[in-house]
Design brief:
Distance between the termini: 25 Å
Strand order of the largest sheet: 7-6-1-3-2-8
Number of helices: 6
CATH topology: Peptide Methionine Sulfoxide Reductase, Chain A
Shape: globular
Radius of gyration: 15 Å
Number of domains: 1
Number of strands: 8
CATH architecture: 2-Layer Sandwich
CATH class: Alpha Beta
Largest sheet: 6 strands, mixed
Structural class: alpha+beta
Strand content: 15-25%
Helix content: 25-40%
Length: 169
């Protein structure tokens, strides 16, 4: 096993976490607040425009799933041209971003980003930068949609079963 880590901001972190938890090769996920100017913000701070992005830390087995494949899935769940907004959520905390942990990941990320950019006339608004900081969200946010199956999610329900569909095909 080759354990690697990537951080993905895709709007509300509840749906993004549930979406990625379904895939073989994803070892662990944790929701939190990333790339903001202050240490250890609370959810209330983040909702008051602290500058942090709702982000999911994804630990994965790079021998089981590639970073490119993770990014393929990521781009299914976001509007990469939306500014500080995904679904019904608006604000700086709902911005999109790919935050890498190792500069060696950058060529693979940039290649997949360019592939996505080719689908649009306007520039993508997905931040692409190294992770600067990450603070785990409060416990009640972790696996929120597992605890609250009727909770809000901008990720379409059909995508929450994508791993099953991919295995059938």
């Amino acid at each position: 096993m080759k354990r690697e880590r990537i951080y993905l901001a895709g709007g509300c972190f509840w749906g993004t976490q549930k979406f990625f938890d379904q895939f073989p090769g994803v070892l662990e996920t944790e929701v939190g607040y990333a790339n903001g100017p202050t240490e250890a913000p609370s959810y209330q701070d983040v909702c008051a425009s602290s500058g942090h992005a709702e982000t999911v830390r994804i630990d994965y087995d790079a021998e089981a799933v590639s970073l490119t494949r993770l990014l393929d899935w990521y781009f299914l769940t976001v509007d990469p041209t939306a500014y500080h907004r995904q679904g019904g959520d608006k604000g700086i905390q709902y911005r999109t971003g790919i935050y890498y942990t190792d500069p060696a990941q950058l060529p693979e990320i940039e290649a997949r980003y360019a592939q996505e950019q080719a689908k649009y006339r306007q520039p993508l608004l997905v931040e692409l930068k190294p992770i600067e900081n990450f603070y785990p969200a409060e416990e009640y946010h972790q696996k929120y949609l597992e605890k609250n199956p009727g909770g809000y999610c901008h990720v379409p329900q059909r995508l929450m079963h994508l791993a099953e569909e991919e295995q059938e095909n």
